[in-house]
Design goal:
The chain has 521 residues and is mainly α. It contains 21 helices and 13 strands. It has helices at residues 22-26, 35-51, 73-80, 85-92, 96-110, 131-142, 188-197, 201-211, 220-226, 251-264, 274-296, 316-329, 331-343, 348-354, 361-376, 388-405, 407-417, 435-445, 452-463, 469-475, 483-499, and strands at 67-70, 145-146, 158-159, 171-174, 177-180, 236-240, 305-306, 421-422, 430-431, 450-451, 465-466, 503-505, 511-513. It has a three-stranded antiparallel β-sheet. Strands 1-6 form a two-stranded antiparallel sheet. Helix 10 (251-264) runs antiparallel to helix 11, helix 11 (274-296) crosses helix 13 and helix 11 (274-296) crosses helix 18 (435-445). The two termini are 38 Å apart. The model has no long low-confidence stretch (mean pLDDT 96).
Length: 521
């Protein structure tokens, strides 16, 4: 999977990067991003590619798949930079003309629309019979604002994507204009899109067919949004690109695509499927992260994920879940070191030069720095060292620190954001899937009643998730395995699923997992 035949070099410049290591392993870039912005970034790229007629067309690592995202500045001002609307409606005392004139003047003075749009919202008078009707529509759309917890400026607030005109990129104000905000949209959602674009063609075709209706501009929900925008289509920014995924093929690509296709095939109304896709995108990006690290360490499969179904007190399952998380959390740092050893320090010419007695330490250090610049895009001024040994030690530490502050932090955010890992009931992270994640896994994997043991075997083979005693017996270290504790863990899962309407217990005491949203049930 990590062979030269399956990878291609980054197409762009590496000058803005302190070093190119995590990016070469996982891509540019996998960083901390809350799940909702990740989902919106993914959908925004998909919608833009749909407009180009390229939705889920196959991509390659050496290509730069560019797109033009919506900005929807008029819509965003109306929803999130319009604090006095309700007050003006009350003060107008049923005078429609007074309401319109006062509000239009306030918006003309306070709206922020950049250099290409005017703050004249008078076009809305022809679209709404009364000012009160406009207020009612804006009030309605504000109710579907998605909660991001942080980044609450008006340019980084979003609504649920009820249509393509409700999808827009994160922005930041810069003087009289705007710039892209890569703190909210970090590219991780774009990585998810690229992963799907490299799945097998039958899977991409299934997803394309199911996802396209969500980008239809002629639905009643999208037309409601368009009533608030002056032009027939949303305003858009410049071309954007630069996201990089190193691998042509990867087991994670089809695995993600199969789950996305399964959720979309449920034919849920409107965009209801998105709430189940959100945790699954996060899960599959996390699995991609730890599986890729494992490949770099010479292991050709996912590492096991031992999960606790939340217990009232600590037992061996919890200890095994903590240990499993910590072990997988350490894979990335080892992969970074392995990459450096393989890409930089395996060069015979380097060893020959560093062993040359005719060169002093300063000359050797300079040669090593140049070599690291060529192989890892290292910026030589980042580390000061008197000799090659010190430079080598500091370079390993430097690369490890960058990884922990970037990709490692991103993987933690994915694991916790999707509901796979948490600190609930303890002070350390461990794998303890939430009900929302369990529901998404059932909806993606069950299309006919499935006996509990078969379901546990299936998610173990597919995701390496370990919950019951049968799977734990082969995955858990002997001193952490207790059959009784893992049976209780399995029983807690059954109770959770029954409580969520995702399982039935039959009269013979057998539990069957069901998908209530599958029309084939």
């Amino acid at each position: 999977m990590i062979s030269p035949e399956n990878t291609e070099e980054f197409f762009g410049s590496k000058d803005r990067h302190e070093v190119w290591i995590a990016e070469a392993i996982w891509g540019h870039r996998l960083e901390r991003q809350p799940l909702t912005p990740l989902m919106l970034e993914f959908l925004g790229m998909a919608e833009a590619m749909f407009r180009q007629g390229k939705l889920l067309s196959e991509t390659r690592p050496r290509e730069n798949p560019e797109y033009v995202a919506n900005q929807c500045l008029q819509l965003r001002n109306l929803l999130f930079n319009n604090p006095r609307m309700e007050e003006i409606l009350r003060n107008a005392q049923a005078s429609d003309e007074e309401g319109w004139s006062t509000w239009l003047r306030v918006m003309k003075e306070g709206a922020s629309l950049g250099q290409h749009l005017t703050s004249d919202f008078s076009y809305l008078r022809a679209r709404f019979d009364t000012f009160a009707e406009l207020v009612s529509v804006i009030r309605l759309l504000r109710r579907i604002t998605v909660e991001l917890r942080a980044q609450r400026g008006w340019t980084t607030q979003f609504i649920f994507p009820i249509g393509p005109s409700a999808l827009y990129e994160a922005l930041g104000e810069k003087g009289d204009s705007f710039e892209r905000n890569r703190v909210v949209f970090t590219r991780t959602g774009e990585l998810a899109y690229l992963m799907l674009s490299r799945a097998s063609e039958p899977l991409r075709a299934r997803i394309r067919e199911s996802l396209a209706p969500s980008f239809d501009p002629n639905t009643s929900r999208n037309k409601l949004v368009l009533r608030l925008i002056a032009s027939p289509e949303p305003d858009r920014g410049d071309w954007k690109g630069g996201t990089y995924l190193p691998y042509k093929k990867h087991p994670a690509f089809d695995r993600m695509a199969e789950d996305v296709a399964a959720i979309l095939s449920l034919n849920l109304p409107d965009q209801d499927a998105f709430q189940y896709l959100e945790p699954l995108l996060g899960l599959h990006l996390y699995l991609y992260g730890i599986e890729t690290a494992n490949y770099w360490l010479g292991n050709t499969q996912l590492p096991s994920i031992i999960c606790e179904i939340l217990a009232p007190k600590s037992d061996l399952v919890r200890k095994a879940a903590v240990g499993s998380y910590l072990q997988n959390d350490g894979l990335g740092a080892m992969a970074v070191r392995k990459f450096i050893d393989k890409s930089a320090f395996a060069d015979p010419e380097l060893h020959k030069t560093l062993a040359d007695p005719a060169l002093d330490d300063l000359a050797k250090k300079e040669y090593l720095a140049e070599h690291l610049a060529r192989t890892c895009a290292f910026k030589k001024d980042r580390i000061e060292a008197p000799d090659p040994k010190t430079l080598t030690q500091k370079f390993y530490s430097f690369a490890d620190r960058l990884y922990r502050n970037g990709t490692a932090d991103g993987l933690t955010a994915l694991a916790t954001g999707c509901g796979l890992a948490s600190k609930r009931g303890t002070n350390r992270y461990r794998y303890a899937p939430t009900d929302d994640l369990l529901r998404a896994l059932v909806l993606a994997n069950v299309n006919a009643p499935l006996e509990e043991s078969a379901f546990l075997s299936h998610i173990h083979k597919r995701y390496r998730i370990v919950i019951g005693p049968t799977e734990a017996k082969t995955e858990v270290l002997n001193y952490l395995f207790d059959e009784t504790d893992f049976k209780k863990n399995r029983d807690r899962l059954a109770q959770h699923l029954i409580g969520m309407g995702l399982a039935h217990r039959m009269s013979d005491a057998c539990t069957y997992v069901i998908n209530p949203m599958d029309s084939r049930e």
